[in-house]
Amino acid sequence: MRVLIVDDDPTIRMTLEGLLKKHDCEIYEADSGFKALDIIQSDQPPELIFMDWNMPGLSGVEVTTLVRETVAENQPYVIIISSNSDSEHVIKALSYGADDYIIKPIDGRFLNAKFAVAQRILGIQEKLRQTNLVLEKLAYYDELTGVLNRRAGNASFQVEMDRAIRKGQNVCIAMVDIDHFKKINDTFGHQAGDEVLRVFSRVLRQTMRPYDIVCRYGGEEFMLIAEINNKDEASDLFERVREAISTTQIRHANQTINITASFGVHVVIPRTDMILKSLVKKADEALYQAKSAGRNTVIISANLDESNMTEPGSVTD
User: Fold this and answer.
1) What is the per-residue DSSP string for 101-149?
2) Which helix (H) or strand (E) holds 235?
């Protein structure tokens, strides 16, 4: 645990450091509120702060207020230290955002008890943060493949459109389908099918560019959104992805599974009033052509005048 001791009195800082040494913590010191803020705003901010109330320039409660107003996440646990034992003084410190209060002179046993409470609360907060990260991942990412789910892909569409408009680039929507996926399930089993989906998703992420959108649209169908300059660039991008998939061999239960995929791509000049559903429909039509042409191919359509692709006030499906 990273601990910051803030006090303009070096004797108090030394006393606190001596009392805290037996705990597994990394101790930092500051002799003013301004120096404390520099440490708090660093790349390795403290998790627990022992802060004197009365300091020249910037008091401990003023620093605490600034911390509560400016630190967006992972707020530190702040314990105010003061020689004033008046209950109104304690209440005031808590109202400024302090988590606890210690009265001088500092009793080592009392400090240890306060440290244990802070450690327990910070541990609970960290578990809660980790739980929220898991819930956020479940809300936006497909559990099996790890790529964005359909809901998150739809939400990313408008962000991608706005970015392309600012950069003056075109956008392409690609619908991708694993060829003969039902046959893979029937031949090798559903566990093999799940492994195919995982590997397929990994190949998509590795061959698409880092800023492109990859999402599982449903079943064995995926949606890709990419910024491109022209139709030829889209062709080069998705041919590269198609080839990477067709050369991938998947090992499952001592068997080798070869896969291919069909791509339907629609290229547009982005506008804020475009509807994702309509663009997906165009990409789906191109995907149908790719399957009709024998699969394992890329079919690209382009429409540089999307006036027929909009509906007032609607941007997603």
Assistant:
1) EEESSPPHHHHHHHHHHHHHHHHHHHHHHHHHHHHHHHHHB-TTT-SB-
2) helix 231-246
Return d(Cα 52, Cα 80) in angstroms, integer.
6
Q: Which two tokens stand for residue 46?
A: 């403290």
Considering 47, 160, 220, 227, which one is annotated as catalytic? Answer: 220
- pLDDT per position as a tens digit, 89-99: 999 999 999 99
Instruction: Assess whether 311 carries a catalytic annotation.
Output: no
105 cis-preceded (ω within 30 degrees of 0): yes
Q: What is the pLDDT of residues 41-89, one digit of tens each?
A: 999 999 999 999 999 999 999 999 999 998 878 899 999 999 999 999 9
Provide the CB-side half-sphere exposure for 97 (13 A, CA): 18
Which residue ranges form the domains of the chain, and what is each CATH number? 2-138 (3.40.50.2300), 150-309 (3.30.70.270)
Token match 């109202």: residue? 95
Q: With the C-alpha atoms ordered 187, 192, 198, 204, is the resulting torsion angle positive or negative? A: negative
Task: Look up residue 192 and give its two tokens.
Answer: 């093999």
Q: Are 217 and 224 in contact (CB under 8 A)?
A: no
Ramachandran angles phi, psi of 212, nearest 5°: -80, 155
Q: Is this model's pTM higher than 0.85 or not?
A: no
Determine contact, residues 101/88, Cβ cutoff 8 Å: no
